[in-house]
Amino acid sequence: MPGKRVTIDDETWTVLDLLARDRMATFQELADEAFADLLKKHGIPVDLKDALRKSATLSKAPVPKKTKSRKAKP
Fold first, then answer.
1. pLDDT tens digits, the chain, 74 residues: what are they?
2. What is the DSSP letter of 73?
3. DSSP 6-68
4. pLDDT recorded at residue 51
5. What is the Cα–Cα distance from 44 to 38, expressed in whole angstroms?
6. Residue 73 and residue 65: Cα distance in Å, rounded?
7. Cα angle 35, 41, 45; round to 5
8. Is the CA virtual torsion 53, 57, 39, 25 positive or negative?
9. Residue 54, CB half-sphere, CA atoms under 13 Å: how many?
10. Distance between CA 64 and CA 27 in Å, rounded?
């Protein structure tokens, strides 16, 4: 997995570090949860299971029937 750098101010880092310690989690686990929530908020599947579930619900949607159009006579 590629690593990325993110700049976080000292005050925010302190609060995130305290939260991680209180929850007995790592910063990576907090970040994973935050990004998953962000993706879910915007309707983007987080993993393959979510993508398949979303795909299945889209395929169950009713397909509108095509009607024959009548040509107007001149």
1. 778 888 999 999 999 999 999 999 999 999 999 999 999 898 888 888 888 888 877 766 666 677 666 666 66
2. P
3. ----HHHHHHHHHHHHHHT--HHHHHHHHHHHHHHHTT--SSHHHHHHHHHHHHTSPPPPP-P
4. 80
5. 9
6. 25
7. 70
8. negative
9. 10
10. 48
Give me 10's structure tokens: 């000292």
How many CA within 13 A on the CB side of residue 43? 3
pLDDT at site 44 = 86
Report CA 12 to chain centroid distance, whole Å.
24
**Tokens coding 57:** 């619900």
5: which 2 tokens? 């750098």
Tokens describing residue 7: 């700049």
Residue type, 42: H
